[in-house]
Amino acid sequence: MEKYKYVIIDDEYPSHWTVQQSFKRYPNYTCVGAFYNPEKALIFLQEHKVDLIFLDMEMQEMNGFEFLEALERKIFVVILTAYFEKHGLNAHQYYFNKDLVFFSNKAQFLYYFPKIIEKFEKMYLEKELIDRINQLSKNEILTFPKKANGETIPLTDIIYIEAIGHHVVLKMKRGDENIFRMSIKKLMGFLPADNFLLIKRNIIINVRYVTAFTESTVCLKDYHFSLSTRRREEAISVLNTYKKELYKDYCLP
Q1: Which of 24, 41, 114, 164 lies deepest, with the highest CB count within 10 Å?
Q2: Is the pTM of this model over 0.85?
Q3: CB-based contacts of 214: which residues, under 8 Å, 6+ apart?
Q4: Domain residues of the chain, as ranges?
Q5: Closest Cα to residue 104, out of 94, 93, 114?
Q6: Quick one: how far is CA 13 from the chain centroid?
Q7: Cβ pair 226, 200 in contact under 8 A
Q8: 4-135 and 155-246 share one CATH topology?
Q9: Class of domain 155-246
Q10: Closest by alpha carbon to 173, among 74, 243, 99, 238?
């Protein structure tokens, strides 16, 4: 069983006690640090691996905003605050990955706690799977051949690609789109075959986002596609092989 490591950063003892008591029902978690001074916590985090942080927003030596700004590592953070409306809209700008931040009202912490654990473990599993995907891919090309607004586009951020006329539309994991003038044939010659699959003449999917598939359809998060009759047999074969390889070391829920 995976043993997750967490730390608590709060200048009030009741928060430390409440968090640690809440974890008594979760034996696969261990507290590796309880800090009343956030500056000491930053030093600790530079030298130790931690999976989860419980962070108070209002502290004397350094507030939660300043802590998030100084935190350079990509760690899941649970912000403990009694003033969500005051801090909720501003905290994300201090931390470079919004998906890793969860707010919890201190007064309702016990209610939110199971939801926090559920979200964290889902995120952690997704990260593990992404790491495995990167290991499985033998193709050294990791970014799209064209940039969007001067920035490179990681291939792992693309859910699927749709060809419309002489253009291709990239559907990204955060819900936005990028459009480029390019033929789908040329694009298929570039994309790593280990991760990208042509399921019909104008749709290329990133297999890492496949959540379910049947003999005629495939689902990627909130997107659903029918498999073309011509490509159905090959697509199902690829998806079955990929699924078996990807999850071979994991016990799926």
Answers
A1: 41
A2: no
A3: none
A4: 4-135, 155-246
A5: 114
A6: 31
A7: yes
A8: no
A9: mainly beta
A10: 99
Fold of the domain built from segment(s) 4-135:
Rossmann fold (3.40.50)
- For residue 1, how far is the Cα from the chain centroid? 21
Q: What percent of the chain has pLDDT over 90?
A: 29
Average pLDDT value for the chain: 81
First to last CA, the chain: 14
Find tokens 């030093």 and name the residue: 43
Q: Please tell me what DSSP assigns to residue 165.
A: T
> Which range is most confident: 137-151, 210-224, 232-246?
210-224
pLDDT, residue 63, reads 81
Which pair of structure tokens corresponds to residue 105? 């009202």
Burial class (CB in 10 A: 0-12, 13-18, 19+), 28: exposed
- How many C-beta neighbours within 10 Å does residue 2 have? 10
pLDDT at 9 over 50: yes
What is the b/e burial string over 213-239, where b = at least 16 CB atoms within 10 angstroms of the residue's CB?
A: beeeebebeeeebebeeebbeebbebb
pLDDT at 246 over 50: yes
Largest CA distance in the chain: 65
